[in-house]
Every structure is written in structure tokens, then in C-alpha cells.
Amino acid sequence: MNSSAESRLNLLLATSNDTLWLWDMQQDATQFGSPWRSMLGIADGAPLGNGIDEWLNRVHPDEHPRVSQALQQHISGITPLFECEHRLQHQDGSWRWVLLRARCLRDEAGRAVEMAGSFTDITEHKVLDPYTRLPNRILFLDRLERSLSRLRHARNHVVAVLNLRTHLAQGYAELLSHDQMTQLARTLGERIASEIRPWDLVAQFSDMEFSVLLEMVATTDDLPAIFKRLLEVLRKPIQIDDNLVSVHVAIGAADSTVIASNEEQLLRAAESAAALAQEHGDNQYVHYDPSTQDKLSRRLRFESELLRAIEDAAFEPHFQPILHLDDGRLAGFEALVRWPRAGGIVNPDDFIPVLERQGLISQLTWIMLQKSLVSHERWIAAGLIPASSRVSVNFPPEQLQDPGLVGLLRVMLDNVGVATSRLKVEITERSLVSDSGMVQQTLLALDEAGIEVALDDFGTGYSSLSMLHRFELDNLKIDRSFVSALEESAQACSITRAIVGLAAASSLTTTAEGIETVPQLRHLRSYGVTFGQGYLFSRALPADDVARWVSEDLPRLQRLFTELASEGG
User: Given the DSSP bridges, would you call strands 390-394 and 423-427 parallel, antiparallel or unpaired?
Assistant: First the structure.
């Protein structure tokens, strides 16, 4: 490289923190600015590689083909600028992320004769979460790869990976701002770090998902104690400004005694174990073994079938009758989802959480609306049930945030020829906790459209009293936990009476869920509860069984109500 070029380079280096470089392509001679050595840990005076190989030989093997192709495309004149992100190996064996920008100088014939550019170290931007400054998945995998490489030369220890999936108690996530969620993630990261050794690594994969790399573990027998310590420390409430929040966690673990050949496979095994831990309930852990993969395969097949069921609208509504508690007249039905699958009916608790995680729960709602309204309208047209009957359909919280919901409902109801007065929307208190104004607008629009709204499981949520005057509601559903305790709990009786009084003061009707015995029915009638449903009247029925229930069971129930009225009960 001539002295003029070297002087120009040195002048540029004096005003830049980037690593500038020049490549004389005819002589394959390169000159790198001094930041090259500090960026890659090369000692002063240590020889650099020959020519362009000083750079190319340090490129990560997974990215070498892509980088070489991009380089040749620019040299050939296909691209006007050579620009790419890739990893370079540091002297300590770790990887640094760099952004390379370069351009060729060409002769009169257009042949590339010289290239000049810069390497910018973007490792921190690439491998750290921008808010919590915790390592991310990229850095975690780099460290894991190095750990497994060392393990191949010394198999007297174990490398383990933990995947921690945390979530807030129901309703709290909607209450916290972005800054508060960042504060929560930082606190969780600190708590995790407090329970592991200084040389282990904590990484953050998302707002509420973390992974831990445990290096040089003596034996897998040490791992359960670590799981238990992490569960214990993460379960302690966390103060976030004025909010005291509780966190639930699922931990999955995998170690090098099962998978030691590939860092991606080891991490995926830990993530699979965490997914299974989530299915077992809050604050659980699962250690990956070969049987875990079988369980995961079954779960993936289940989820694949579930997705196909959504696409094919394979879910069916089962109808639980709702009666007037004063005289036993039929008031309507609650449509409860069922999934007919080979081998039997799948419990909704087994598939609804999966649809919620996959963001498909709203699609299920539309399937239920379409099918339940069509069946309900057919029964009315046939004179089987009264025209005043309503069918209740459960709506998930996110659906109420859709500004176009009521318009879509009107279109669907028009398409199936059903009046809006035939539909009742059931929501939970969780739908109202995170109100941003849109929920209020949606409930007001439903009221204006003549669609009733019932608040399900009233009395078990967060802010029941304030909801009665803030939102347009028509009916409060008394949770089955109160109804089931009416015969032996004076407190349950008092709470139920209080709910009925609150509803009456707010001009709302009430519906008792889970009525199973005649004494429970007597209590509810004496408190003035408007409607009721439960096994005493009927389980949820397939559409084909409703006609038989109306002709055989409903008259029997109305005789029961007549008897209760005659005895004053």
C-alpha cells in the first residue's frame, strides 16, 4: 500500500471510533486501523493474517458463505455498496458482531482494484436487550456454543440450560405501563442472577421470558435445588411503583448428558420442557429427558389438530338451559364450546388456553356465534322455545378492544336473519380491568344495538363495585363458588344477597351459576335471583338433544317450581 493511501487512512482513523481498512486487491495487501486489534483482542505487535484472510478467516462459519457471496457480488459490480452484518471471532474465542460497509475503487475498465470501508462493532446493540441491558438470545447461544465446545475436551462436568417463562397474575399485565414492565423484567433478572453463580449467564428472550446457562455443574443431581431456589425467589411479590404484583413461573431444563452436540437443540429442549411445565400449572419445573420429547410431540400434534379444527370450524356449541327462577320458564341458553375429536369430546380447559396463546380465541368466538345463533333461531321458528329466548356467548377480553366488533356483529346477525335481541354477550371482569376507553365504547354500542351484556363470575375479580356504574351492563352472573356453598356457609349466603342487592340498585338482573340441589334453588329464589342454570336443570346439551329436553325435562322442572311456590320456598 503506498504512503499516500496510508496517510489518508491514518488521518481518517484519528477522527473515527470505527475500524477503517483498505485492501489493495492486486497485491492482496490490507491495512487495518488500530481499533481492529482492540475490537478483537489482538495484542499490539502480534502479527495479523495475510491480506484479506485476516478478516475472512475470522468470520463465523455459519455466515461465511453469505459474506463471501456478498463480497463477490460487489466486486463484480452487481451491488453498488458492500454492506453486511456478521460475527468475527475474538481472540478469547467469543464472537463480536460487526457491521461492515465498503466500496470498491475501479480502474478505467471498471475492474475493482482497491476496496475501502469500515467495521463497526455492534455487539452491544445486537446481543443486549435495549431496556434491561440483559444478554439476549444471540449472546446466550454464543456462550452456550463455547461451553459445549469446552465440554468436548473435558467431560468431567455438566452444562445445563434453564428456560424460565414468567407471567403476571391475571389482570395485572394490563395495569402496568411499558416502563413498569421494564422495571419488572429488570427485577426478575436480578433475582435470577442472585440464585446462580457469578460465572453463569442470565439472558432475557422477551418481556417475561428468561434463560440461564449453568456452566461446569458437577452433577445433574444439583439441578433440582437450583430450580426450587429460583421458584421460591421469583414467587415473592414485587413492588412496582404503587403496585404489588405476583409472578408465576414455569421452568424447563435440559443438560449436556442428554444433548451435548448442538447449542440450538439444547436450548430448544429446555424451551420444550418449559412449555410442558406451563401445562402442569403455576410454579412448576420439568427436566428434559427422552420421554419429554414424546410428550412434546403429542402436544404439537394436538396443536396442529386444533389449528385444523379452527380452519374447518369443527367446534360445536352445547347449550345449557337458563331458567327464570320465579316460575321455571325458559329464559334462554348459554352456548358452551365443545370440540368433538377422535376419541371423544375435548375439555375446553385443554384447548382454550392454547388458542389464547396462539391468538386464535377470537376466531373460535365467531364460530360459536354463527353455529349457536343458527340453532337457536331454528328452535324459535319451529315453536320449540319462546321468541323471548336469548342465547349467551362468551367473548374474550381482546374482542372488546376491537372498534369494529359491533359492526361485524350486526352484519353477521343480518346474514343469518337473527334479531340483535336474541343475543347476550358474556364477558369477564378481566375484560374491564384494562379499560382504555375502547371497552366502554364497545359496551355502549352493544347496548344501543339491543344486545345484552352479562358480567360472568361476578364477585371473584378485582374491582367489582366500581364496574357497576362505569360500564353498560345488563346482568350479573353469580359465581358457582358462592352457589355451591349456600347450604353450609352463612358468608356465601350474605355475599349472594349482597350481589342481588347491588344488582337491583343498579337496575341489573342476576343469574346464578352451578345450581345443583333443590336447597340451593330455595336460597336463590328467596334472595330474588332472576335467572339460574346448573346441573339441577340440565348439563350442556348437544343441539340435537334440546328438543327432547324441552318436551320431557322442562315440564318436570316447571312442576318442581310449582311445588316450591306452593310451599313458599
Answer: parallel
DSSP β-ladder status, 82-89 and 29-32: unpaired
178 burial type by CB count under 10 A (0-12 exposed, 13-18 middle, 19+ buried): exposed
113 and 37 fall within a common domain:
yes
- C-alpha span between 153 and 145 (Å, rounded): 13
Task: For residue 377, count other CB atoms closer than 10 A to its CB.
Answer: 18
Q: Are residues 7 and 66 in the same domain?
A: yes
* 525 contacts 326 by C-beta, under 8 angstroms: yes
pLDDT tens profile 242-262: 778 888 899 999 998 888 888
Q: Do 558 and 327 contact (CB within 8 A), yes or no?
A: yes
Among 497, 458, 491, which Cα is nearest to 475's?
458
* pLDDT for the residue 15: 47
If we measure between CA atoms, which residue out of 359, 140, 190, 163 comes closest to residue 249? 163
Beta strand segments in 314-449, E: 316-324, 330-341, 344-346, 390-394, 423-427
Q: Per the domain annotation, does 393 fall within a domain? A: yes
Q: Is the dihedral of CA 407, 412, 416, 420 positive or negative?
A: negative
For the chain, what is the domain count? 3
Q: Please report the pLDDT score of residue 236 as a whole number.
A: 87
- Long-range CB pairs of 555-559 (<8 Å, 24+ gap) are 557/323, 557/328, 558/327, 558/328, 558/329
Which one of 76, 110, 126 terminates a domain?
126
R_g of the chain computed on alpha carbons: 33
Range scoring the smallest mean pLDDT among 40-54, 81-95, 116-130, 402-416: 116-130
Domain of 71, in residue numbers: 3-126
Q: In what order do the strands lie in the sheet with 29-32?
A: 29-32, 19-24, 112-121, 95-106, 82-89
Residue 92 lies in a domain: yes
Percent of the chain with pLDDT over 70: 93
> Do 393 and 430 share a structural domain?
yes
Cell representation of residue 50: 495475510
- Helix (H) / strand (E) element for 368: namely helix 361-381
